[in-house]
Amino acid sequence: MTDLSLSDHAVAGKTAPPSEARALRLPTQWLGVAPFFIFAIMFLILPTLYLMLGAFQNDAGEFTFENIAALAQPSIVAAYWISLKVSLSSALIGAFAGLAIAIAIVRGGLPEWIRSATLTFSGVASNFAGVPLAFAFLATLGRLGLATVLLNTVFGLNIYAHGFNILSFWGLTLTYVYFQIPLMVVIITPAIDGLKKEWGEAAATLGATQAQYWRMVVIPVIWPSFLGTVILLFANAFGAIATAYALTGSSLNIVPILLYAQIRGDVLHNAHLGYAIAFGMIVITGLANVFYIWFRTRSERWLK
Amino acid sequence: MKSGKFWAWVVFALGAAYFFIPLIATVEFSMRMRRGAYSFDAYQIVLGDPRFQATFGYSVLAAVFTIILGVLIVVPAAYWIRLRLPHLRPIVEFITLLPLVIPAIVIVFGYIRMYGSNSPLPFLATDMGTNALLVIGYAMLALPYMYRAVDTGLRTIDVRTLTEAAQILGAGWGTIIGRVILPNVLIAVLSGAFLTFAIVIGEFTMASLLNRPAFGPYLQNVGANRAYEPAALAIIAFAITWGCMSLIQILSRFAPRSANRPN
């Protein structure tokens, strides 16, 4: 930075009209990035700010905390609670299962084609979300789904009689895991690839057992990327609506579905309460991403 | 080590079971329409449904416009940042991550309130305006993927030398970006384009809240009213996603490689 300013000074001292040249250069410098910034400000930043400000205004446009306080009503708290539960449990299940699969395909000594096939499939499955995913799970674990029927006829286990329902917390969690695991596999596999062979050899040379190697080398190195990815999966599930809406209609009231109903028909009878719900969602996913970025910068130190 | 291999197989088998059973179940369910025999009736009904054709066509068109808009916004910005404004990179990368932070439903809620019929920019006042707003929203959703793809592509070519060579030969900025840079990162752009297509084609939230006759809301509507057709549609959607991802994989084989390629 200092170097740059020094050379600028030197140039300014020698050539005659530098200010003119600068004034001409500045706009063209920005021309290439201008569409990007205008687009981002108009269609990403301003609409979000508009909602965030609206969350602190009443109908007359005066500043108020009433909308935020109104979030405390039981139906909204319940919606946030179930959303947090579904997002967190699907993120954790997805993360551990994805980690196990990633370790198995990278370190498990499986044939090479399994690794590439798993990664390809993960790329597809992590993008197979939304309405079609809900259909697939209804066909599998719905009342007439293949798995439900087979469990009943072959093993005599009627899961619906035992309290399972696809239109419930566990049904939704199990469905979300279908895109969470592949996402974990896609993100965490490079981190496991980044574990250098030399570290294992060095640990072995120093007399470490396999368990010590895992506990004192592998886990500390993978930990930040693992936690970072858990948070990413959490935010990914928290904002998702299409799968849940197609699966459960509005019988499971997660936050995005509540907001969806509010946008469509003002079910809460207070326009600014919708802003407050959106504000709450931004705060939660925003906080999650602050942690994500923090963990990622920590993990990058090892994975060069 | 031997037990390690055994557990690796167990994990892999469990994972494969979890991922393949729903697919098998969906295929099976989609063929159960005719009583007592497997048939492709559900697929025939779905593919013959004029609403399927109309909404699918609409979404394909929306995806194409989204890709064009995304390329027009991302390529010049990513190029310019590499060439002239590297100090802006952290800001731009932060902005491209924002669509992953802010849920799509919140973004579209903002659009509805900001660009309503009696706002200074009344996108929602006309049908064309609403279509444009949907494409803009989709470009926003795809921004993180498009930017990442194009930036990775730019990393593998020598932007500065190419630009200077073109300038010496008398090319203007439009020529440089359109005829020198873009062809060189075409494979990266196409990867981003197919990913965009996969994201946009069945998107539900934005299309539904903007009341557009897109494929996503149609899927939801069929799901709420029919029994076997949704399963057929799920298989069709899976095939489309699979197709997009396969094309990306095939394209990546043609991509130029360099020493500082990140993945």
Q: Please, could you describe this protein's structure?
A:
The complex is a heterodimer of chains A (304) and B (263). Chain A is built from 14 helices and no strands. The longest helix of chain A is centred in the N-terminal third of the chain and has 34 residues, at 74-107. With 304 residues, chain A is an all-alpha fold. Chain A is globular, with a radius of gyration of 26 Å. Chain A folds into two domains: 17-54, no CATH class; 72-300, Orthogonal Bundle (MetI-like fold), CATH 1.10.3720.10. Helices cover 76% and strands 0% of the residues of chain A. In chain A, α11 runs antiparallel to α14. With 263 residues, chain B is mainly α. Chain B contains twelve helices and no strands. In chain B, α3 packs antiparallel against α9 (186-201), α6 (127-155) packs across α9 (186-201) and α7 crosses α8 (173-184). Chains A and B meet through α3, α5, α6, α7 and α9 of A and α1, α3, α4, α5 and α6 of B.
Secondary structure category of chain A: mainly alpha
CATH architecture of chain B: Orthogonal Bundle
- SSE-based structural type of chain B: mainly alpha
The largest β sheet of chain A comes out as:
none
Strand content of chain B: under 5%
Radius of gyration of chain B: 22 Å
How much strand of chain A? under 5%
CATH superfamily membership of the largest domain in chain A = MetI-like
Q: What's the CATH first level of the largest domain in chain A?
A: Mainly Alpha
Could you tell me how far the N terminus lies from the C terminus of chain B, measured between alpha carbons in angstroms?
Answer: 29 Å
The total domain count of chain B is: 1
| Number of helices, where a helix is a run of at least 4 consecutive DSSP H or I residues of chain A | 14
CATH architecture of the largest domain in chain A: Orthogonal Bundle
Determine the oligomeric state from the structure: heterodimer
Q: What does the average pLDDT of chain A come to?
A: 83
Q: What string gives the helices and strands of chain B in order?
A: HHHHHHHHHHHH
Looking at CATH, the homologous superfamily of chain B is MetI-like
